[in-house]
Request: fold
Amino acid sequence: MRLIVLAASLASAAAGLLLTHHVDAQEEPEPGGQELFEMWCADCHDPGPGHPGTLRMEGDFGVENSVLREMQAVNRPLIHLAVRRGFAMMPPFRPTEISDEELERIASYILEEGE
Ligand code: HEC
Reply:
């Protein structure tokens, strides 16, 4: 009997969580790839001076391969690796900061594969 009560209250707690989540999602639309890129990556990877990622990549690969969004050699696995593991001076990002879904959107934006 106790177990049934417990299970019932757990189920309603879970339903409550689902409900709140649903309401949240409706109030705040999920940020798109561009917005996420600007939030997490642009400070270091935008074109022009003052962006350490761009600067380092210019040193490593030449000026024509320094802007992340314009690079031909960048692909989805490399973006995953750099973001989750970090890359030279670039810090890694945890899934609590950038979720897997958000990472996919960022990658699509960088690779210009739509969203
Ligand atoms: C604090 C600065 C910083 C931030 C923020 C940052 N990066 Fe980086 N990133 C770097 C640096 C520095 C490198 C290494 C360049 C080098 O040494 O060649 C790099 C390298 C990379 C590379 C490897 C490129 C290559 O081919 O070598 C990828 C991919 C990348 N970053 C993606 C991202 C993405 C996506 C984000 C946002 C989620 C991001 N970075 C945020 C600084 C940063």
